[in-house]
Specification:
Mean pLDDT is about 95; it is low at about 1-20. It is built from 3 helices and 55 strands. The chain is elongated and about 105 Å long. The chain is an all-beta fold and about 750 residues long.
């Protein structure tokens, strides 16, 4: 990246400088500044309007205004670093859910929202438009539901949308799923609570609530955003009122609900609540003769960009009446969104130049920064991320972080702390000699982790035994999956426990309507106390292509032989001849870094029952046992399997009795355990006898069409003989399945009564 240096001396400053040296932003008033172009049109920037960092990461998102086909996004990974990369993304449905976006805002729960500067995408008198909610998980955003508005299919990857603010010009996150919106159509401010999103691509908005602050009057300037930001400590909401050329703030916890509102006929939608609020406390901070646009806040400092002049004003908000401290004269006409980044520095987009800039003051005297977490490998999302990667195959983690001295003096000591899932803080007292700008890797003490996904936060404290003068670059966070402990071979899973996924297993999915689960009422071949189910049937959207992943624990195959195999029972019915849901089994020997497919069937090759247009529930006869060799993995100490379903929005797939072992053939089982069923034919009473080699665990009896008529489960005990009473059964042939400690043997019995 090419650096451009401008020197701004105190002659440009006409105001007092409270707390100089105590707030990093104050250095922008006193220091010479360097302007570094971070991204340009070569990085797919095209009419950029706003930017925001995914919290506590180096991941910068920029929103392009776009065309009638919708806005677009540019994601800068390791933004501003030598390792910076970028991705251009456009969701297939931004022509409605992100049409002409002037502003975005990240939450702290792995989501972000945007608004659209348009009356409606429906045309005519419609005012059906408002904020859209999206996931910050890059495995989902603009990756799932991409179908070009195909009828009946998911509506892209958006999480939710509410529609009572056309021509919205700004947005700010509050907490959870609550956002504030500058409503340019109605000329006031609204608070939106999505409450519970409808899952990527669906369209049920009925959980949403809206509060309209009718006494906060604002005016839109077409084409120029009016950004907003929330001080999440004091709960002051800062607003650029672009049309009135002023900056205001409202005390978001004041005011009272004085009306229950009705949605207009031009924007009809079901809502859980729609209210009018009056009496809110509001205050004008500053007025402009030019065009204010962007705004951001951090640690009692407010910055506001001026689209017309390119200036950035800095205000002190620690006092009852916020006061202008000084102005950065960037000379960059066309500034829109402005952001105090996760490095503590000021970043902005220039809409006219199609560029992102970072402004660098001189280094703070003492500034120790966590540049990134390099181990465990992390996904910069919340723990519920949609990826089978980012695995840690140990029972404890020893994090490694990149520590950088961003201060102007030698760094000789710093406390590096981390916490996992908000648990106990682990502290490492680093000492050494780190020159300005130098980066080193630091290994931290280990912590025990359980199986599952986790969020790690690492941060610095007490550099050189004093206060860090730039707190915003101290912290980084991310998520990873632990797969632990390793399980012995042979390995079985019968889904009898109520919990799902089973202990030690991991499930990866994102759709709350169609997902993997355990079903207690169904078992393989009609036996057992539960099984796995993938729901490909439910919901209102055609989810063709959706993949869900169920990952086994790590398994020690050291004792596996060349005869090792995977066996599992499966049941599936196609919805109709055109739908073809699939099941695949993959194997990894390197903690999920790579996978090899060993089984893959779909449609008629997977089906065990006739097509059915209602939700499929298998009978005892509508199962089959699949077997595939695991000989290639014999002797390996660490093996994982992953069951992958690919939906065609057809019907349910069931699976049970997963078994990894060195299997015995039927003759071998019969040589070990001699099962006798007699007399045969019988007039009503049948004796099942295990003559040697172990006992009977379960007996299942079904008629010739697969209907179960008896099931005797001996639980934790075993029996060597048992009497079955067929006196109430009609004459005919019956199937007896006898499960022993060594396998399952099937016998036929003929009932022939006088």
């Amino acid at each position: 990246m090419k650096k451009i240096t401008y020197f701004l001396y105190s002659s440009a400053i006409c105001f007092s400088l409270p707390s100089i040296g105590q707030n990093f932003i104050d250095k922008y008033i006193s220091d010479p500044l360097i302007y570094t172009p971070i991204a340009t049109s070569t990085n797919s920037l095209n009419q950029p309007k706003d930017l925001d960092f995914k919290p506590n990461t180096n991941e910068l998102w920029v929103v392009n205004y776009g065309t009638t086909t919708g806005g677009t996004s540019v994601i800068l990974y390791n933004a501003g670093q030598a390792t910076q990369t970028f991705e251009y993304r456009k969701d297939s449905h931004t022509s409605h859910f992100m049409r002409f976006p002037p502003a975005i805002a990240f939450s702290d729960i792995g989501e972000w929202a945007c608004v659209s500067e348009i009356q409606s995408t429906a045309g005519g008198t419609s005012t059906f438009m408002g904020p859209g909610l999206w996931t910050a998980d890059t495995n989902i955003y603009a990756r799932t539901g991409q179908n070009g508005w195909a009828l009946g299919y998911p509506l892209g990857s958006h999480l939710d949308m509410l529609h009572q603010s056309p021509n919205a010009m700004g947005i700010a996150h509050d907490s959870a799923k609550i956002y504030w919106v500058f409503d340019g159509w109605n000329g006031n401010i609204c608070k939106y609570d999505f409450v519970s999103d409808h899952s990527p691509g669906y369209d049920n908005h009925s959980a949403g609530k809206i509060w309209r602050y009718t006494g906060v009057n604002v005016l839109r300037t077409p084409g120029i955003p009016s950004h907003m930001v929330m001080d999440k400590v004091s709960k002051w909401l800062y607003i650029v009122d672009g049309g009135n050329k002023r900056v205001i703030r409202i005390a978001s916890k004041t005011g009272a609900v004085t009306a229950t509102l009705s949605v207009p006929g031009t924007a009809s939608e079901p809502l859980a609540g729609y209210f009018g609020v009056t009496g809110v406390t509001q205050q004008t901070i500053d007025t402009y003769t030019s065009q204010p646009c962007g705004i951001d806040y951090s640690n009692n400092r407010l910055i506001v960009s001026d689209y017309t002049t390119g200036a950035i004003r800095i205000y002190d908000t620690s006092i009852p009446t916020p006061t202008l401290m000084g102005t950065i004269a960037t000379g960059s006409t066309g500034i829109m969104g402005v952001k105090i980044g996760t490095d503590g520095k000021i970043w902005f987009v220039n809409n006219l130049q199609n560029k992102v800039y970072r402004i660098d003051p001189l280094p703070a005297t003492v500034d120790a920064s966590i540049l990134e977490i390099t181990s465990p490998a992390i996904e910069n999302s919340e723990p519920k991320f949609y990826s089978p990667k980012f695995n840690q195959c140990v029972g404890s983690v020893s994090p490694i972080v990149s520590l950088q001295n961003k201060g102007s003096v030698l760094l000789t000591s710093v406390d590096i702390k981390y916490t996992i899932d908000g648990g106990p803080v682990t502290t490492f007292a680093w000492t050494g000699s780190l020159a300005t700008g130098v980066i080193i890797s630091v290994s931290l003490p280990n912590s025990v982790v359980t199986n599952g996904t986790h969020k790690i936060i690492a941060y610095t404290a007490n550099p050189n035994g004093t206060t860090d003068l730039n707190l915003l670059n101290d912290k980084k966070e991310g998520s990873f999956r632990s797969i632990n402990p390793i399980m012995p071979y042979p390995f079985t899973e019968n889904f009898t426990a109520a919990v799902f996924p089973p202990a030690g297993w991991s499930y990866v999915g994102y759709n709350k309507y169609c997902f993997m689960s355990r079903i207690a009422s169904v078992g393989g071949f009609g036996a057992g106390l539960g099984c796995f189910k993938m729901d490909n049937f439910s919901g209102t959207m055609n989810i063709t292509g959706q993949k869900d992943y169920l990952i086994t624990p790590r398994i020690n195959f050291s004792s596996a032989t060349g005869a090792s195999s995977l066996k599992f029972d499966v049941a599936y019915a196609m919805y109709d001849p055109t739908t073809s849901d699939g099941l695949e089994v993959r194997v990894s020997t390197n903690c999920g870094a790579t996978w090899t497919s060993i089984y893959n069937k779909a449609g008629t090759f997977l089906a065990t029952a006739p097509d059915i247009t209602t939700a499929f529930v298998p009978t005892a006869a509508q199962w089959k046992t699949e077997t595939t060799s695991m000989s290639a993995y014999a002797g390996m100490p660490d093996v994982m399997l992953m069951f992958v379903t690919t939906s065609n929005w057809g019907n349910h797939i069931y699976m049970d009795n997963i078994n990894l072992s060195n299997p015995l053939g039927i003759k071998e089982i019969e040589n070990i355990i001699n099962i006798e069923v007699y007399p045969n034919p019988s007039d009503g009473e049948v004796l099942v006898n295990a003559n040697s080699g172990g006992g009977i665990k379960e007996i299942l009896v079904s008629n010739i069409i697969g209907q179960q008529i008896m099931n005797v489960d001996f639980k934790n005990s075993t029996e060597t003989n048992w009497k079955l009473n067929f006196s109430s059964c009609v004459n005919g042939t019956y199937i007896i399945k006898v499960r022993t400690e060594s396998g399952v043997i099937t016998k036929k019995i003929i009932i022939q009564k006088d």
